[in-house]
Amino acid sequence: MDKLARVAEVMPSASAPSSTVKMRTEGLSKHYGETVALHPMDLSVRTGELLTLLGPSGSGKTTLLQIVCGLVEPTAGKLFIDAKDRTHALVHERDIGVVFQNYALFGHLTVFENIAFPLQMRRVGAQEVKRRVMHALEMVRLATFGERFPRELSGGQQQRVALARALVYQPSLILMDGSLSALDRKLRENMQMEIKRIHRETGATIIFVTHDQEEALALSDRVCLMNAGRIEQIGTPQAIYETPRSAFVADFIDVSNKLRGRADRDSMLVTPDGAIPLSRDAATSAAATSAEAMLIVRPEHIRIDDGVNGFVRGRVIERIYGGSETRLIVELPSGALLTVRQMAGTTVRDIGDVVSLRWQPEHALLLDH
Q1: pLDDT given at position 9
Q2: Burial of 308 (C-beta count, 10 Å sphere; 0-12/13-18/19+)
Q3: Which of 209, 186, 182, 169 is nearest to 50 (CA)?
C-alpha cells in the first residue's frame, strides 16, 4: 500500500470546498463592558474550505476564534457546527482542533507522544494510536522524527507537529491562530505551501487567523476581512484584491493608490491633479453619479508614459529596491502620493525625475467617497 493510500485510511478524503455549511454564526457578538469587541455577525464556513480571518489588531478576528473554540462566551447570538447548536457547549464537546500561535507542544513528551496525546485522551487503543500517529507523521513529512523532543526541532518542524496533532483525531473543524507569525519569511512561505498541500490532501475544514495580507491571499479559498469588530468583505482572494468594496479593503489588501475627485457627466473624474478618464462601467455606476468619488489603482497597473499622454504628472521622491521589482513613490502637484511598481529589467527612474503616469481605465475601481 503506498503512502497516500495509507494516509487516506485515517484522514478525511480531499475535496474542493462544498456547498455544505460546516460552521455558521447568527448574530454572534461580544461586549466587554462598554467596549464592543465583536458586533452582531453572520458568517458561514463551508465544509472542506480554508477560510482566513484577516484584519488589523483589534479587528475582532481572535475574539471570534476564541468564541468558536469555546474559550470565550458570546454576549449574544448563536454558533452552529454541523447544524448543531454549540453556542454554550464545553470545549471538548465541540470537536475542534486548535493550532496555537506558540504551538503549545509538551516539552517533556516526544513528537510521537505529543501527537498521540489527543487520541489517548479519547481512549483509543494502543495499536490504533500507533497507526494513526505514524500516518499523521507521514502526512506532515516527519516520519523519522517521532522519537525527538520539541526542543530538537526547528520552528517549522514544531509547527508541523502541532498541525499533525490537530489532524490526527479528525476533528470536525481546525482553527489555526497566527500559527506562522513567529517564523522567518522563507520558512513561513514554505509552511504556507505545506498547509495548502495538507489541506488539499485531507479535505479538512480550516479557519486560519492572520494579520498578514500576503499570507491570507496565498492560503485561502476565501478571505473574511474584518475591521473594528465587523466583516468588511468576504470573498475569494482574487475578488478581495481586484474588487474591494471599500477604501479600507483596498488599502489593507496590499498597496492601493487613491485619487479623490468629482465624477462628471463626461466619464471623467475631476481631481486637483487633472481630469482622469473612467471606464465605461465606472462611469455608469452608482458611484459615478456621486458628488465625490475615489479612484483606486493598484501600483502594478500604472505605467510611466514617455510622452505627454499620461493622466497625471508628478516627481519621483523615493525609490525602493525589492529584487524582482522596484517601487517608485511619485508625488503629484496636489501632494498626493502614488506608488508605481517597475519590474526588474525595465528602466528605473531616478529620484527627482518628472514622470507622466497612465493606466488602462478598466484597471481602476471607482468607489463612492
Answers
A1: 41
A2: exposed
A3: 209
3-state helix vs strand vs coil in the chain, percent to 5: 30, 35, 35
Burial class for 344, CB neighbours closer than 10 Å (0-12, 13-18, 19+): exposed
List the grid coordinates of 97. Answer: 482542533
Average of pLDDT values for 145-155? 92
- Mean pLDDT, to the nearest integer, of 133-158? 90
* Strands 222-227, 230-235: pairing kind: antiparallel
C-alpha closest to that of 188 among 230, 156, 218, 225 = 156
pLDDT band at 181 (very low <50, low <70, confident <90, very high): low
Give the CATH architecture of domain 255-368: Beta Barrel (2.40)
Per-residue DSSP letters for 140-158? TT-TT-TTS-GGGS-HHHH
Could you state, in order of their start, the residue ranges of all structural domains in the chain? 3-242, 255-368
How much is the average pLDDT of 282-295?
A: 67
Q: Over 90: is that where the pLDDT of 17 sits?
A: no
CA–CA dist 274, 167 (Å, integer): 57
- Domain 3-242 in CATH 1.10.3210.10: no
pTM of the model: 0.82
Indicate if the pLDDT at residue 317 is higher than 90: yes
